[in-house]
Amino acid sequence: MFFVDKTPPKFIYCPSRLNVSAESGGTWATVKWKEVRAKDNSGPVTISVKPARVPPRFPEGTNSVIYTATDSSKNTASCIVFVTVHGN
Hints:
single chain, two-stranded antiparallel sheet, mainly beta
């Protein structure tokens, strides 16, 4: 019998919301977080991110970074990180 994997990957670490203050005198903040990780029931997972180059500096307001985990059967799961930068 042939096994068909229909189970999407699961994120084991993905911060959903990050709230930070803008740097003194500026309208942006430098933001870093731990590496986003995912696992799957059938093997390795590939993680892509949009925008493709996550800036370490985010402008004032709410910004989103979308991570997509894909397994070898093309099942996907998404995690959105909302980075909110508050003005001084």
